[in-house]
Design goal:
single chain; alpha/beta; Rossmann fold; 6-stranded parallel β-sheet; 10 helices; 6 strands; about 15% strand; globular
Length: about 220
């Protein structure tokens, strides 16, 4: 069976259970502009996607009136920093990270979140020591992570990585660096969307752990 030298974790929706915080961050922005708010987690998972700017357009924001970079993104981050304070880690995230470490795999977080924010969220939840490297963006605009993934690969040319994520964008990032990928359907996108990627989709990290340690890492 294949042995992975490195585990690359997405953060939001994979390690951090922050979907409700994201809904609660964008809904006041929508309501203030007379736009329909997101009414349920299921609706959110259907709407959310990368690039984030396209997601905002689908929600109805008008970039001609309010530019994404200078108005909407900073406003969302301000809301999110408040709403996400109580967002927990998924219960199985750190136990699974501990099992990977015991199996000898190095672990990285790779996220479209700004690196300082990402590091602080990990530190506040006691998760920082579980990860060997933190790869985050140098801005708040959440453009994506494929370039970041390429940079990770350039720094680890001989690695045999497994990418754990919760979006189609995670599958795309894994693809560009030749990583195997497992997507969890308990995050920011619906199982139906994830199943279009042609990679393994599991319900949650508990199922992921059962599959990996019975089939891959034993």
């Amino acid at each position: 069976m294949k042995t992975y030298t490195d585990i690359i974790w997405d953060f939001n929706g994979t390690v951090l259970d922050d979907m409700q915080a994201c809904i609660d961050s964008v809904n006041p922005m929508l309501a203030a502009r007379g736009l329909p708010v997101i009414g349920s987690l299921e609706q959110y998972r259907t709407l959310f996607d990368f690039p984030i700017e396209d997601y905002y357009r689908r929600l109805g924001f008008d970039f001609e009136k309010e530019p994404y970079h200078t108005v909407l993104a900073p406003l969302w981050v301000e809301n999110y920093l408040r709403e996400s304070r109580s967002a927990p880690l998924f219960a199985d995230a750190l136990p699974l990270a501990a099992r990977f470490r015991a199996a000898g795999a190095k672990q990285s977080i790779l996220s479209a979140t700004e690196k300082g924010m990402l590091t602080e969220q990990l530190r506040e939840r006691g998760a920082l020591p579980f990860f060997d490297e933190i790869w985050g963006c140098d801005n708040i605009h959440a453009y994506g992570k494929t370039d970041l993934a390429r940079a990770w690969r350039a720094a680890h040319p001989a690695a045999v990585p497994l990418f754990l994520g919760d979006t189609t964008h995670d599958a795309a990032a894994a693809r560009v660096i030749g990583a195997d990928c497992v997507l969890v359907a308990s995050g920011h996108q619906s199982r139906e969307k994830l199943q279009t990627c042609g990679v393994t989709v599991v319900s949650d990290l508990s199922e992921c752990a059962s599959m990996l340690f019975s089939e891959i890492l034993k």
